[in-house]
Amino acid sequence: MIKITVKDILENCDAKLLIGDEKQEVKQCFVDSKKVKEGGCFFGIKGNHVDGSIYYKEAFDNGASICIISKIYDLDLKGYDDKTVIVSNDVKKCLQDIARYKRSLFNGTVIGITGSVGKTSTKDILSSILSENFKVLKTNGNENSQIGLPLTILRLKDEDVMILEMGMSNLLEMHNLSLIAKPNIAIITNVFDSHIGNLKTRENILKAKMEIIDGMDKGYLIINNDNDMLSNLNVEINPLINVMTFGIKNKSNVMAHNIITGIETTFDIDDINELKIKGGKCLVYNVLPAYLVGKLLGLSRSMIKKGINECHVEKHRLEIINLNYGVTLIDDSYNASYNSVKAALEYMENFNGRKILVLGDILQLGKESKKIHKKIGKLVSLFNIDYLITIGKYSKYIKKEAQKNGMKRRCTKHFKNEVKSGKHVKSLIKKNDVLLIKGSNGINLVNLVNYLKNSFKIDEDA
């Protein structure tokens, strides 16, 4: 069991003890004063608009034992004599530094996962496999940021393996995460257009993703050999880092064969036959690197097969929800890119019934926004979609391009936000319809999903 104390924070971070006990253990860590639990440690991080440190009293009142805050001129600790207060010039860096220290005490395996699409699904599949033989700590939800990743590491107790999802939107962000996490194994699922608004080119996106190896002295880098940016990788890599590949098309270290797609996709890898996963062919690309890691860590074929076949990916990622009246809702509202929209549309084709497509904006595309949304509109017109509803600022270009390429005007509708779309979408749905909802998380399509779930109820017998 790896434990961190107040003294460890003082010795490894730019921080000073104001009141409290150096021997006190740092247990659960929080950055939201409203979510602090009894005995927790609150990090008052300064945001773009508000300094979280000003909520130290709320954190204490909600049960925090320790608050790490920036300098507050009107600090009032009356009534909090039994608490611990640490002051730091940079609370966010303090969080990162103590996570870096805790990582240095961990002798198990750290696996870092990045990529434009598929990080979370790969994480979930890998966790399912490795949990057959190890105690596993994995990223919760999308806590893959400069704040989320340190919080994940600080949750470490007695696990053998850490699986860390690692996200970025600019250069040097992955570099910093890698220096904190120091992965033994790094996975890059793919390099597409996500974050092109910030990084301008796919070459820069590749450069930013490759920063995942900056904290590695040795180990394995596992990459998607079917991805055009990664299959022609021309980057100087530490010779102590072994590069391994996975794919379906291009010859790779590990490949999937005999792929049969449907509501459930079946396939073979090496000599393991009849693997299956609930979802489309795109998920095979998430299984392959997870399979490879399982082999590297010595799991048996039966363990790997069981881990894959019994895996359940997180909610809002091609999640099948059976509503009343035989209505099938495919909830893919967590995130979106051109490539993931294409994969979701291909998956939708496996279902019988009228097809209703709800697409929200894809964010962080910058100057490429209009172009890529128009490209998606052209893509949509190639599929058998009965109704198209678009939501957001740029998705109107999806609607216009779909109409331009043959979709009837009366079968399309655009809304500025998900709230205004709810009643219209509900009015379209009939018995045995199939509904796909997809968009970037910031468009809040999960609210539309919940509205429809409440309207039609969930069919428990499906």
Your description of this structure?
It is a single chain. The chain is an alpha/beta fold. Helices cover 32% and strands 22% of the residues. The chain has helices at residues 6-12, 56-61, 91-104, 119-130, 148-154, 173-181, 196-199, 202-210, 228-231, 284-296, 301-309, 338-348, 369-380, 396-404, 418-428, 445-456, and strands spanning 4-5, 15-19, 25-26, 29-30, 41-43, 66-69, 84-88, 109-114, 136-138, 161-165, 185-188, 219-224, 241-247, 254-260, 264-269, 272-278, 319-322, 328-332, 355-360, 387-391, 412-415, 434-438. The mean pLDDT is 95.
Topology:
Layout: E1 4-5, H1 6-12, E2 15-19, E3 25-26, E4 29-30, E5 41-43, H2 56-61, E6 66-69, E7 84-88, H3 91-104, E8 109-114, H4 119-130, E9 136-138, H5 148-154, E10 161-165, H6 173-181, E11 185-188, H7 196-199, H8 202-210, E12 219-224, H9 228-231, E13 241-247, E14 254-260, E15 264-269, E16 272-278, H10 284-296, H11 301-309, E17 319-322, E18 328-332, H12 338-348, E19 355-360, H13 369-380, E20 387-391, H14 396-404, E21 412-415, H15 418-428, E22 434-438, H16 445-456
Parallel strand pairs: 4-5, 5-6, 6-7, 8-10, 8-11, 9-10, 11-12, 12-13, 13-14, 18-22, 19-20, 19-22, 20-21
Antiparallel strand pairs: 1-3, 2-7, 14-15, 15-16, 17-18
Question: Outline of this structure?
Answer:
Helix content is 32%, strand content 22%.
The 3D shape can be described as globular
* Count of helix runs: 16
Would you count the extended β strands for me? Answer: 22
What oligomeric assembly is this protein in?
A: single chain
Spatial order of the strands in the main sheet? 9-10-8-11-12-13-14-15-16
Question: What fraction of the residues are assigned to beta strands by DSSP?
Answer: 15-25%
Largest sheet: 9 strands, mixed
Any low-confidence stretches, pLDDT <50, length ≥5? none
Determine the N-to-C terminus distance.
43 Å
- Average pLDDT score: 95
Provide the structure class: alpha/beta
Query: What's the Cα radius of gyration?
Result: 24 Å
What share of the residues lie within helices?
25-40%
